[in-house]
Q: What sequence folds into this?
């Protein structure tokens, strides 16, 4: 069900932080035209901590209406409180989405049994397939392979976004989980290699600005053409690196603004990309063949 390049899409905002609906329409059309396989709304890249449930719902309704049947639409519903996650999952999973993504509870550092019960409770409430999301570098908790294998037995838990950047972890997960369970990379620099050992795709930040190439690299890797996939990926290496010169999504939103797709708006506590990093992001865009405006915003 979930494969290829699913883009962890940004949330466009006006200078005052309000949602920019014309820019949202432009982004949706951009990914439809460029061949992304799916969009993940209200993930980390979408500034989920700064969005209300109502805003996430409206972003999702618009995306489903515009993209239904043409690319997968997944919505982030996870929080670090189980009751809130259950409520969000129940509401957002009924908006016509193809799936919901649930991040591991952050800051409160639950043990593995707590993670298991948390995700089961949310999956029980979901009307759509569930993608687990493990990103210990941000959350402070690691969803371990034996726990993932337990969760994969739940009928609505069908995939994992794994952002540890470890191929050894990927092999362990692939061995532990049933064949129908989809492993998705959450790390652009290692995504092609993970697909090469059996992952189904990536939930990508780079795909925001180079969706066609990211999708093509994933298709090549999934089809067994690793040399071809690596050749495409080589043109994206600078983006994989420099879209993280400051915390995500600061650099990628600035890059999309330079491309003329969105304005510079971002919500506090995040701020616009600092001037010292702008040249490196521009160079990365140029190396990937991405067109952008001549003068910095």
A:
């Amino acid at each position: 069900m979930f494969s290829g390049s699913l883009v962890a899409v940004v949330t466009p905002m006006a200078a005052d932080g309000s949602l920019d609906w014309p820019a949202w329409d432009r982004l949706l059309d951009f990914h439809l035209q460029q061949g992304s396989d799916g969009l993940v709304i209200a993930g980390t890249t979408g500034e989920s901590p700064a969005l209300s449930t109502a805003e996430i719902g409206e972003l999702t309704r618009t995306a489903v209406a515009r993209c239904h049947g043409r690319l997968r639409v997944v919505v982030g519903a996870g929080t670090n409180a189980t009751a809130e996650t259950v409520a969000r999952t129940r509401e957002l999973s009924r908006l016509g989405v193809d799936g919901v993504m649930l991040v591991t509870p952050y800051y409160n550092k639950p043990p593995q049994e707590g993670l298991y019960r948390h995700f089961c409770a949310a999956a029980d409430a979901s009307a759509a397939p569930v993608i687990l999301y493990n990103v210990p570098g941000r959350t402070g908790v690691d969803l371990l392979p034996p726990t993932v294998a337990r969760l994969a037995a739940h009928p609505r838990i069908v995939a994992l976004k794994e952002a540890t950047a470890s191929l050894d972890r990927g092999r362990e997960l692939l061995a532990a989980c049933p064949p129908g369970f989809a492993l998705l990379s959450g790390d652009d620099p290692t995504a092609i290699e993970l697909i090469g050992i059996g992952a189904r795709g990536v939930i990508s930040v780079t795909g925001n600005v180079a969706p066609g190439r990211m999708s093509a690299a994933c298709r090549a890797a999934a089809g067994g053409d690793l040399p071809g996939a690596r050749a495409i990926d080589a043109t994206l290496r600078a983006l994989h690196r420099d879209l993280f010169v400051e915390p995500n999504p600061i650099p990628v939103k600035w890059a999309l603004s330079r491309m003329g797709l969105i304005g510079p708006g971002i919500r506090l506590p995040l701020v616009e990309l600092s001037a010292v990093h702008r040249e490196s992001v521009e160079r990365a865009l140029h190396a990937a063949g991405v067109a952008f405006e001549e003068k910095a915003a």
